[in-house]
Hints:
The chain has five helices and eleven strands.
Amino acid sequence: xxxxxTGPATEPTGEPAFRTATLADVPAxxxxxxxxxxxxxxxxxxxxEADLLxxxxxxxxxxxxxxxxxxxxxxLAERDGELLACCQLERRGDRAYxxxxxxxPGLQGGGIGRAVLARAERLAGEEWGVGAMEMTVIEQxxxxxxxxxxxxxxxxxxxSPFPYGDERFGxxxxxDLRFERLIKxxxxx
Length: 189
């Protein structure tokens, strides 16, 4: 596939292949997550947090920790060997935590995210046998929360503070950020 200054000249086609990430995938995962959420490149998609937060979204240490977590994994979606999307799943008792969900900006809105989420739900419900999947989303991300609601997640009204002062999570551009917990009941095997 030929490359241009902004990425592949043609987008890969066909259904994505899924696999569990290894430590060798960490650099590509960091680049994907950063491109999906921060900086100018993220604005090509609709999941950008660039208007809410500056700085980094993650780093190699945090991604390596997720990849190597004993009760979790990072799921990759690839097509023709090219990384398209990812998510983190972590088993937490009778629930699974869903995070680090990232889709390459130029592919957002094309169904890859729905496919990754569906695969994560099947893995958590059918293979792990957990009854629910949960996540936290920045409350001000109304469009993103609405996307999750259309896929069966519900808002809980449970909030946690944004870690102001810890630049590992970004540099806030406003003083009122906080996370809301979303949850979706799963069909366990």
